[in-house]
């Protein structure tokens, strides 16, 4: 019998169709502390039970199958979805009448108090061989030629974008040109029936009042609160609340709270949350335009939310039903302590999950809490749909009433993303066609589609978990007429600050609180593309994507357009470091250690190279090399060889031999374009960043006291034409042995080489005996069998986000664009065309 999850928050139902049934959630209790989990019944209600003497924190034991609803109603289904909750909670409307009870749980159980602290320790550090597999001697003339070619392609593309659609300036077949406006025999909702509305004059970015939810101190335990434009009220405990409530979000179960250091406190609840994700190929329309090839997870895009509590184990079984693609799942931002083989990177931490029904189960500890996402790390698959949100519940640095769940912001293209990748690899950057909120938007150039919408309660504080899961775009995000109080960046709780807009790069996440203190109405939620980024500049015709935030009781008149005011997005930037201050203050070593051991990593150099199997392509460099992995021989397997970390087959490696010491890197950009850089296995300390060439005199500007910690940071580009490229300085402690990628999260850039591997404590990686596991051996054997038996399968050197090409010659000449376009569009068509 499948047990029900122990909680069901707005995050679980915030995505259309992201139901627990589709995610096939089970809960396994491996140890008990204060509660006992009861099995689910076959009815739409749930049984609850309490262990003797158990705590009532987070428990809704009063609502059992033998009792009526709190106000005497005979069943939960008596409450229509449009009504408020029976106990006055404002978030019941998220639960359909067929749910198994609004709280969706029997009790909150099994929180173990056991923990252990990891020792620190600092010692000297020296870099090992870089292990680059390509030449590091590139003539200056070739570099200049490639940079000019990329820049000229960018400029040329911008002039061709009359509207938001792609209009590739290439003669011949016209591949890559979408149907402007879109048409399809498949059903779609017309724009006139979607109800996407706004209530004038609330169309601008400026908030007319200042949110009262910001705070620079710990969450108050007061039972009342007030804000500008709203009366004083008593925060209510929602059925979705666990371990804390709206009156004090700073606390958590087992005597943990917002001040607990999650890096040294190995909190384990003894609960395992289990999910099954089935990946299939199909066709889908996201915005009312013609359907295109898409990869779904459990029949939906984005995939279902993976939801857990701080300290839970998470087990995810991935079944790959794609015919012509192997795949993997990477759990973005999860540090994978002692589980390097669960990081989901083909050719580095595993082989890959074979197509035609191959499977793998990933298991990891939710050692951090907050918001993130999971996605394929094989080629550009996540751009075509293999992505979904992660919510790990924990304490917060400011109070809120309702958790609204995740806001996944994605870009979509006229082509399948595989085709788009080939076009950009050969001809330079191009713009996206549309921007999606949780997989939806209206057609920007014609009828059809629908905006994603939320219903919020007036005069309440709502938590939104914003994720940039796009393929190429950085955004400026805002809620019309409302401020945001930012409480977390990536997996790191921060001191709250107020802002009307938020810069968010690919891979980054921000948790924000929006107080609904404006007149009842409907307000746009906007994502404006930062046009100073390498591809965003070609997309200025689209500019903005809108979702809708509807106040309960609003009957606003629908409108078709509302202008953007008081917002610029001409840069390609991160949130200011000065705004991002971690709540738990931790130092990042010291300047003396930095000066004696810092290493410089050049990044972002672009060249054009001739390949024996893919023609003339753009190629992006980092650490004077490009990454080239082989799925059949992952890095963790190569480390088992006699050469160990010195194995020349380990591509573009930086070897970190010393344990528990701080290592520092100046990432020096070599090109005008900014790059969102993601580091696996660590939250890195961002010591400083700037739009100039780094020199040692800038050491005094770095922050070692309590720098921002996060897993994704923007490597600065140029401040303007003719200006030098910028730098970003990071550091981390070598306390997590593993083969960890650092890569640009623009799909086309990592696909064209912009990644390296930190080989952290290679001897300790080998001692984990990852390659001795039956699961590792079985996956690799299944992949080899699949590739041998399926001649149409995309080979390992052509499908990874870590592109492998066979032969490189650095040339300054171009080839026939027309013939190349036809050939590569044909290859991509074979790769992504679904079978019936």
TrEMBL record:
Keyword Glycoprotein: yes
Gene Ontology annotations of biological process type: lignin catabolic process
GO molecular function, one term: hydroquinone:oxygen oxidoreductase activity
InterPro entries: Cu-oxidase-like_N (IPR011707), Cu-oxidase_2nd (IPR001117), Cu-oxidase_C (IPR011706), Cu-oxidase_fam (IPR045087), Cu_oxidase_CS (IPR033138), Cu_oxidase_Cu_BS (IPR002355), Cupredoxin (IPR008972)
Signal peptide start and end residues: 1-23
Positions of the Plastocyanin-like domain: 279-395, 426-553, 650-763
Name of this protein: laccase
Naturally occurring in which organism (per UniProt): Exophiala sideris
Lineage: Eukaryota, Fungi, Dikarya, Ascomycota, Pezizomycotina
């Amino acid at each position: 019998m499948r047990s029900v999850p122990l909680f069901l928050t707005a995050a679980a139902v915030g995505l259309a169709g992201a139901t627990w049934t589709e995610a096939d959630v089970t809960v396994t209790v491996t140890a008990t502390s204060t509660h006992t989990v009861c099995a689910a019944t076959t009815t739409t209600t749930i049984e609850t039970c309490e262990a003797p003497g158990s705590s009532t924190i987070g428990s809704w034991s009063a609502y059992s199958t033998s009792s009526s609803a709190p106000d005497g109603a005979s069943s939960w289904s008596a409450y229509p979805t449009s009504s408020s909750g029976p106990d006055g909670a404002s978030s019941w409307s998220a639960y359909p009448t067929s749910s198994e009870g609004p709280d969706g749980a029997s009790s909150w159980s099994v929180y173990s108090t056991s923990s252990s602290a990891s020792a620190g320790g600092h010692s000297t550090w020296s870099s090992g061989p870089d292990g680059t597999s390509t030449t590091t001697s590139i003539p200056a003339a070739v570099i200049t030629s490639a940079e000019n070619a990329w820049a000229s392609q960018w400029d040329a593309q911008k002039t061709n974008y009359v509207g938001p659609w792609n209009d590739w300036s290439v003669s011949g077949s016209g591949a890559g040109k979408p149907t402007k406006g879109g048409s399809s025999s498949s059903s779609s909702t017309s724009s006139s029936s979607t109800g996407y509305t706004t209530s004038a004059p609330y169309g601008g970015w400026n908030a007319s009042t200042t949110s009262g939810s910001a705070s620079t101190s710990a969450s108050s335990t007061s039972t009342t609160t007030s804000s500008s434009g709203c009366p004083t009220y008593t925060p209510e405990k929602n059925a979705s609340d666990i371990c804390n409530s709206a009156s004090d979000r700073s606390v958590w179960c087992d005597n943990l709270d917002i001040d607990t250091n999650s890096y040294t406190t190995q909190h384990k609840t003894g609960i395992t949350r289990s999910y099954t994700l089935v990946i299939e190929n199909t066709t889908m329309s996201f915005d009312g335009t013609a359907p295109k090839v898409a990869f779904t997870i459990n029949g939906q895009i984005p995939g279902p939310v993976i939801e857990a509590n701080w300290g839970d184990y998470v087990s995810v079984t991935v079944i790959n039903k794609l015919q012509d693609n192997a795949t993997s799942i990477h759990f973005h931002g999860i540090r994978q302590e002692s589980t390097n083989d669960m990081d989901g990177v083909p050719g580095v931490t595993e082989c890959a999950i074979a197509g035609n029904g191959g499977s793998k189960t990933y298991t990891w500890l939710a050692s951090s809490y907050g918001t993130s996402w999971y996605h394929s790390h094989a080629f550009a698959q996540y751009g075509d749909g293999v992505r979904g949100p992660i919510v790990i519940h924990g304490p917060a640095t400011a109070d809120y009433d309702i958790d609204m769940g995740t806001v996944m912001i994605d870009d979509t293209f006229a082509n399948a993303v595989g085709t788009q990748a080939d076009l950009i690899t050969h001809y330079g950057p191009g713009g996206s066609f549309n921007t999606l909120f949780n997989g939806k938007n209206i057609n920007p150039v014609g009828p059809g589609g629908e905006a994603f919408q939320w219903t919020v309660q007036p005069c309440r504080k709502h938590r939104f978990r914003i994720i940039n899961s796009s393929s190429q775009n950085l955004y400026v995000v805002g809620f019309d007429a409302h401020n945001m109080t930012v409480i977390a960046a990536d997996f790191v709780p921060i001191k709250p600050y107020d802002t009307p807009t938020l810069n968010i790069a690919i891979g980054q996440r921000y948790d924000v609180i929006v107080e609904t203190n404006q007149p009842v109405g409907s307000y746009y939620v906007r994502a404006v593309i930062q046009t100073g980024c390498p591809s965003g500049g070609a997309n200025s015709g689209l500019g903005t994507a809108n979702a809708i935030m509807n106040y309960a009781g609003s009957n606003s008149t629908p409108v078709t357009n509302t202008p953007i005011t008081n917002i610029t997005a001409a840069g390609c930037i991160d949130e200011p470091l000065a705004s991002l201050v971690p709540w738990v203050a931790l130092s990042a070593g010291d300047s003396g250690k930095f000066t004696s051991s810092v290493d410089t990593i050049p990044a972002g150099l672009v060249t054009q190279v001739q390949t024996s199997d893919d023609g003339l392509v753009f190629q992006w460099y980092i650490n004077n090399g490009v990454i080239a992995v082989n799925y059949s021989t992952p890095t963790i397997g190569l480390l088992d060889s006699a050469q160990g970390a010195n194995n020349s087959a380990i591509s573009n490696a930086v070897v970190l031999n010393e344990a528990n010491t701080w290592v520092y890197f100046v990432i020096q950009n070599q090109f005008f374009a900014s790059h969102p850089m993601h580091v696996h296995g660590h939250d890195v300390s961002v010591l400083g960043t700037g739009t100039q060439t780094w020199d040692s005199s800038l050491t005094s500007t770095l922050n070692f006291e309590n720098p921002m910690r996060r897993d994704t940071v923007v490597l600065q580009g140029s401040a303007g034409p003719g200006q030098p490229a910028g730098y970003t300085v990071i550091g981390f402690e070598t306390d997590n042995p593993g083969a960890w990628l650092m890569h640009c999260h623009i799909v086309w850039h990592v696909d064209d080489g912009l990644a390296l591997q930190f080989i952290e404590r290679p001897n300790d990686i080998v001692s984990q005996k990852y390659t001795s596991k039956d699961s590792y051996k079985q996956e690799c054997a299944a992949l080899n069998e699949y590739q041998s038996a399926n001649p149409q399968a995309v080979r390992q050197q052509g499908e990874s986000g870590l592109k492998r090409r066979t032969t490189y010659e650095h040339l300054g000449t171009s080839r026939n664009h027309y013939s190349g376009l036809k050939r590569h569009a044909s290859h991509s068509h074979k790769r992504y065309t679904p079978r019936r």
